[in-house]
From TrEMBL:
InterPro entries: A_deaminase_dom, ADE, Ado/ade_deaminase, Metal_Hydrolase. Belongs to the metallo-dependent hydrolases superfamily. Adenosine and AMP deaminases family. Adenine deaminase type 2 subfamily. Pfam families: A_deaminase. Its EC number is 3.5.4.2. The active site is at E205. Keywords: Hydrolase, Metal-binding, Nucleotide metabolism, Zinc. Its cofactor is Zn(2+). It catalyses: adenine + H2O + H(+) = hypoxanthine + NH4(+). Binds 1 zinc ion per subunit. This is Adenine deaminase. Catalyzes the hydrolytic deamination of adenine to hypoxanthine. Plays an important role in the purine salvage pathway and in nitrogen catabolism.
Length: 343
């Protein structure tokens, strides 16, 4: 089969409606906004210019990035900051024809430095509502627990979230993976499950396949974030396929955090070939160099993906979302029209 030109791929990627399922809102803080918020809030940051901030974004692993990520979110102080951050992301998502977002936020990254839970979530939710009104982008909000902290802190965060639970759709697990297996959070995930929340966890980004097993067996997650290293375990792959588990892969993130050495090593095509429901996401786009379409383009070009495979990735993003079945079906029908027109 002849493969499409890169220009054709870009046009298709731009046209396809997509959902983004793996996006840390604090990781969408662009250097320009960071510098502006630092000035607005009278905060000293260790960078003299936007260019200097960008130059600091050279990472050799996840922890390197996380150190800068937690430092960066220090400019977020008042509700308006969280609102502006969320709106800036939704404008970029809208420009990329993203129609639905399921975003993460890290409450402990804020409460741990004296910012009230309500300040962070209040601003983010106001942004999400405004984005829905202005762009028609639907949303879900997922509260992540920081896995380098203990389970007591996660349980306290879940308790703090109780007044907001009608506006929180799920919980997730992020931050430093190595040495912090999912099993460490068994009780807080069990409690979240009792509360009717959806469950996701980062697993198999740097951590071993055993962490993906734990996320499925102990935490009982609906979805795996990243999941790259699941491919090292044939039985795990069989299970992920049989249970139609969604993996939220983040190609530019993988490259910047040295999970892969070159985009040609991205597992996306292999996952598609195995029948895994893989999706494409931007993770922390301000730090990793691109939003959803940039991630689609990078993998599609490096892996020489067909138009059919690109359309399947868009279908997977809605199929793996927490939208009701009828809404998934509407989005997927729109994608199938585009797929058939380009066939
Ligand atoms: O890619 C990530 N992995 C783990 N924790 C994170 N927190 C923000 N981004 C990430
Ligand atoms: Zn992530």
């Amino acid at each position: 089969m002849t493969r499409p030109s890169n220009a054709r791929r870009s046009r298709l990627i731009q046209a396809l409606p997509k959902a983004e399922l793996h996006l840390h809102i604090e990781g969408s803080l662009e250097p320009e906004l960071m510098v502006a918020l630092a000035a607005r809030n009278g905060i000293d940051i260790p960078f003299a210019s936007v260019e200097e901030v960008r130059r600091a974004y050279a990472f050799s692993n996840l922890q390197d990035f996380l150190d800068i990520y937690y430092q960066g979110m220090g400019v977020l102080r008042v509700e308006r900051d969280f609102f502006d951050l969320t709106m800036a992301y939704l404008e970029r998502a809208n420009a990329d024809t993203v129609r639905h977002v399921e975003i993460f936020f890290d409450p402990q990254g804020h409460t741990g430095r004296g910012i009230a839970f309500g300040t962070a979530i209040g601003g983010i939710l106001r942004g999400l509502e405004e984005g829905k009104a202005r762009f028609g982008i639907s949303y879900r909000l997922i509260m992540c627990f920081l896995r380098h902290l203990d389970e007591e802190s996660a349980l306290a965060t879940l308790a703090e979230a109780e007044p907001w639970l009608d506006r929180i759709d799920g919980v997730g697990l992020d931050s430093s993976e190595r040495g912090h297996p999912p099993g460490k959070f068994a009780r807080v995930f069990a409690r979240a499950r009792e509360l009717g929340l959806k469950l996701v966890a980062h697993a198999g980004e740097e951590g071993p396949p055993g962490y993906v097993w734990e996320a499925l067996d102990i935490l009982k997650v609906d979805r795996i974030d990243h999941g790259n290293r699941a491919l090292e375990d044939r039985r795990l792959v069989e299970r992920i396929v049989a249970e139609k588990r969604t993996l939220t892969v983040c190609p530019l993130s993988n490259l910047k955090l040295c999970v892969i050495d070159a985009m040609g090593q991205s597992p996306v095509r292999h996952m598609l070939d195995l029948g895994i429901r893989v999706t494409i996401n931007s993770d922390d786009p301000a730090y990793f160099g691109g939003y959803v379409n940039a991630n689609f383009i990078a993998v599609a070009e490096a892996l020489d993906l067909s138009e059919d495979q690109i359309a399947t990735l868009a279908v997977n993003s809605f199929a793996g979302s927490f939208l009701p079945e009828a809404e998934k079906a509407e989005h997927i029908a729109a994608i199938e029209m585009i797929r058939n027109a380009s066939a």
